[in-house]
Specification:
Length: about 150
């Protein structure tokens, strides 16, 4: 399954304006609420609780905030490219401008971990990050994410 399959229509936001990690997470939680029907506050609280365990800033300008939440039927991804990078306390100290949020069902342990691994593998690639940063609109970003090989077993 390609990452693009995790992102419903309307799940990509280009040039999201946020001046802090908290603002970015709030804005993305609102997008996730529109797509999942779950309250934005519940999504934000779950993601923020996970952030408190350790930053989801993975380096190279990428963050992968994630949480499991009751009431969600399947793993849902929301992608945002920030207008201005924000501090995600990444391991390399670089602020994040590419954020891929994953919201998974509360009981989806293995499915959640597989989705995280898939996102991480794709966003580790410099060519993918460059294409995501250069993409002119949400459709182009979705196409970059859809370009992940379908044979990826994880």
């Amino acid at each position: 399954m390609a990452l693009a399959d995790l992102i419903p229509s309307g799940g990509v936001h280009v040039d999201l304006g946020a001046s802090s990690r908290k603002q970015a997470l709030q804005a993305m939680s609102e997008l996730a609420a529109d797509l999942t029907g779950q309250p934005a506050r519940a999504i934000f609280d779950a993601v923020l609780q996970r952030e408190r365990l350790g930053s989801t800033g993975v380096g190279q300008g990428v963050a992968i905030p994630h949480a499991r939440l009751a009431g969600i039927d399947s793993v849902v991804g929301i992608f945002a490219r920030l207008r201005t990078p924000v501090d995600f306390e990444s391991i390399d100290g670089r602020p994040a401008d590419l954020i891929f949020m994953l919201i998974a069902p509360e009981e989806a342990g293995a499915e959640h971990l597989k989705a995280l691994a898939r996102v991480s593998r794709l966003l580790r690639r410099e060519d993918v990050r460059q294409r995501l940063r250069a993409a002119p609109d949400s459709e182009a970003i979705h196409a970059v994410l859809a370009g992940e090989p379908a044979t990826d077993a994880a």
